[in-house]
């Protein structure tokens, strides 16, 4: 394996992946949007904004593998006049532009970090599998699915070895967003009205995700696969909160408010989407990934939570 190009290297997943590569003595190059810090200069290339006009020529010199993590992710207050168009510009056009230039530069394998939201927003009778018909709902998921399809076409036309990974919510040291808010609410002994919730959700610990990416860099059976990943142990929202309280040495105060009331409050407050994530099921079946690659998560859900919080 030659040089591995990691886009979005200073992001949540990218930073952790680069740390793992350093430990394994894998030669890699980082791409960043802005001028790097002193510690990043030797292995970094600044590419600016990612779109269909981004010039990747310097970044792709002598590169054999690309791990594409950079993306426009969820925006809490999206001021774009056309949110989908902005997601498409970066996540679709920017990704396909990179893939075409990668092919021309002689890259052999392209690993694309997608999202389980390509499968849908929630599960009902059974967990999501890689064989399910995609059902992306929001602009972010739609853009990721379009990128997957475009990459698949490039791979078919050129022989590029494409690996697609669809993770659920990723947590770990430095996690932000809703997961961080849950940690803080438990830490501050805030009473939570979620005691009546009975759901199951799959999560993936950051180090488990990075480990799978590392395996996909060289495993011959990874090429051409769409791989789902999770920690392998689904958990309800109340049980997740109990675990967060336990590892922080806190006493959790759960109030049992009927689920229908919570949904109503979500609609009234304009936070239906966030409330649904706390109430609904989203289960991922990653048995196919484990069988194809002979891979298993290195850390359990409880270990991942402890390493995240402590």
Summarize the structure.
Helix content is 40%, strand content 13%.
Question: How many helix segments?
Answer: 10
On the 0-100 scale, what is the average pLDDT? 92
CATH class of the largest domain: Alpha Beta
Q: Spatial order of the strands in the main sheet? A: 3-2-1-4-5-6-9
* Order of secondary-structure elements: EHEEEHEHEEHEHEHHHHH
Feature tags:
single chain, 310 residues, alpha/beta, Rossmann fold, seven-stranded parallel beta sheet, two-stranded parallel ribbon
Explain the overall architecture:
Helix 1 (12-23) packs across helix 5, helix 6 crosses helix 10 (301-309) and helix 7 (259-269) runs antiparallel to helix 8 (272-279). It is globular, with a radius of gyration of 20 Å. It has helices spanning 12-23, 83-104, 139-158, 177-187, 206-218, 237-248, 259-269, 272-279, 287-293, 301-309, and strands at 3-7, 28-32, 44-46, 63-68, 109-113, 161-166, 169-171, 203-205, 226-228. It is an alpha/beta fold. The longest helix has 22 residues, at 83-104. The strands form 2 sheets. A 7-stranded parallel beta sheet has the order 3-2-1-4-5-6-9, sandwiched between helices. A two-stranded parallel ribbon has the order 7-8. The chain folds into 2 domains: 3-173 and 203-232 and 283-298, NAD(P)-binding Rossmann-like Domain (Rossmann fold, 3-Layer(aba) Sandwich), CATH 3.40.50; 177-198 and 235-279, no CATH class.
């Amino acid at each position: 394996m030659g040089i591995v190009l990691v886009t979005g290297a200073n992001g949540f997943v990218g930073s952790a992946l680069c740390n793992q590569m350093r430990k394994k003595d894998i030669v890699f190059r980082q791409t960043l949007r802005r001028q790097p810090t002193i510690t990043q200069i030797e292995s970094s290339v600044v590419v600016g904004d990612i779109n269909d006009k981004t010039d990747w020529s310097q970044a792709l010199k002598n590169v054999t593998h690309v791990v594409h993590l950079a993306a426009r992710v969820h925006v809490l207050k999206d001021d774009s006049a056309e949110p989908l168009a902005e997601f498409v510009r970066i996540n679709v056009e920017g990704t396909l532009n990179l893939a075409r230039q990668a092919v021309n530069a002689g890259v052999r394998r392209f690993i694309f970090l997608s999202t389980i939201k390509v499968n849908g927003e929630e599960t009902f009778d059974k967990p999501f599998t890689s064989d399910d018909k995609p059902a992306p709902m929001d602009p972010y998921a739609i853009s990721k699915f379009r990128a997957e399809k475009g990459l698949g076409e490039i791979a078919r036309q050129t022989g590029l070895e494409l690996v697609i990974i669809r993770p659920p919510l990723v947590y770990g040291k430095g996690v932000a967003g809703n997961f961080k808010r849950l940690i803080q609410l438990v830490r501050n002994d805030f009473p939570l009205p979620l005691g009546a919730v009975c759901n199951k959700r799959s999560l993936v610990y950051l180090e488990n995700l990075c480990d799978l990416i590392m395996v996909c860099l060289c495993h011959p059976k990874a090429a051409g696969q769409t791989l789902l990943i999770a920690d392998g142990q689904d958990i309800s929202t109340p049980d997740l909160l109990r675990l967060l309280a336990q590892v922080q040495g806190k006493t959790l105060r759960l109030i049992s408010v009927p689920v229908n009331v919570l949904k109503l409050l979500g609609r009234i407050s304009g936070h239906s989407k966030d409330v649904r994530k706390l109430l609904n099921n989203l289960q991922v079946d990653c048995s196919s990934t484990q069988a194809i690659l002979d891979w298993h998560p290195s850390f359990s859900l409880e270990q991942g939570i402890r390493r995240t919080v402590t």
